[in-house]
Amino acid sequence: MLSFITVEELNRRIQSPGGVFILDVRSASDYLEWHIEDYGVESVNIAGSILQKGIPEGQLPKNREIVVVCAKGKSAQEVTHFLKGKGYAVVYLQGGMEAWSEFYRKVQVTSSAALEMLQVIRPAKGCLSYFLYSQGEALVVDPARHIEEYLELAKAKGVQIRHILDTHLHADHISGGHALSVRTGGKYWIAASEMQGGEIPFEALTDGLVLKFGESSLEVLAIPTPGHTPGSTSFLVNGKFLLSGDTVFVSGLGRPDLGGKAREWAKMLYETVIQRINKLSDDVIVLPAHYSDFREVSKAGYIGATLGELRATNELVRGGEESVFTEAVAGQTGAATPPNYETIVKINRGEVSVGDEEATELEIGPNRCAVKHLA
């Protein structure tokens, strides 16, 4: 009988001191496009068809368990059976990359009498959402469509979700904002400009809006930060945490070309950096909606960095001359767009509805929402 592991067990092994060895048997192009990465991962890509002809010398360890990964777990079973017959210690990942694409892990960002905040990480997509709570009341920012993740957190923490916010209209994954609002009775908030032509009810985010939750009267200030999309919004929590959506990343800034107006929106993004972001202090912690590399994980375990750290390492975050900034940002656009982004945008506006199976297919693949550091 073949042995398998779940995505939860794979994550545990990845985070363990010994790490994990992964044999990805998808095509080379699929592997280069998107594969499992982390500090605890050693990975090799050998297509199943190549393995059947003969195992490349020195590619696979004899003294270490191998986890075989494919798209949905079927091809991996065939390879596992083949390698087991050759004497290798081997298991396959149940559900393959499709299952990995729907796995989440939670990391504590801060814990105090006034505020508890968890970062909900979806490692396969590089998507980040946030669960904040105080004195029995909770707020969720940028929830993914698997809303059970947040409902289970609320139950475990004994809190009521009062507000659900999307920093912008997401293009690479389906938002759980509206669905979570329906399930909990909490208000769903997003900028009105993001939902033009949409069918989903929402509360409009406006500059200077303050949302309070908990007896501590914790304040969340909405700061419109156009650039990635015209209605992109960031949230300043307690004057210390900037939930920056896709405006400021640990690795760079949000790409302004998804609306087909790269140069125009790059100038808007410049104004965001100069007029809004640069007025915040160096010790403000930036917590984005996406990450593109596992090396963006901080020493504390979450994806984020202080503005001071970003300003020291990223020329774009400092702003600089407008013409140089605009040329640099617009010049780096044109890269591959998020898979199926036009359909996903329509779903997130409520113009189109799909079932779970189609939603899974639409979301498979990496995020491509960032403009990287200047070289």
Automatic annotation (TrEMBL):
CDD domains, per database record: POD-like_MBL-fold
Cite a single Pfam family from the UniProt record.
Lactamase_B
Q: Where is the Rhodanese domain?
A: 16-109
Q: Which PROSITE patterns match?
A: RHODANESE_3 (PS50206)
Q: Where is the signal peptide?
A: none
Q: Name one GO biological process term.
A: hydrogen sulfide metabolic process
Supply the SMART domains for this chain.
Lactamase_B (SM00849), RHOD (SM00450)
PANTHER family this protein is in? BETA-LACTAMASE DOMAIN PROTEIN, PERSULFIDE DIOXYGENASE ETHE1
Name listed for the protein in its UniProt record: Rhodanese domain-containing protein
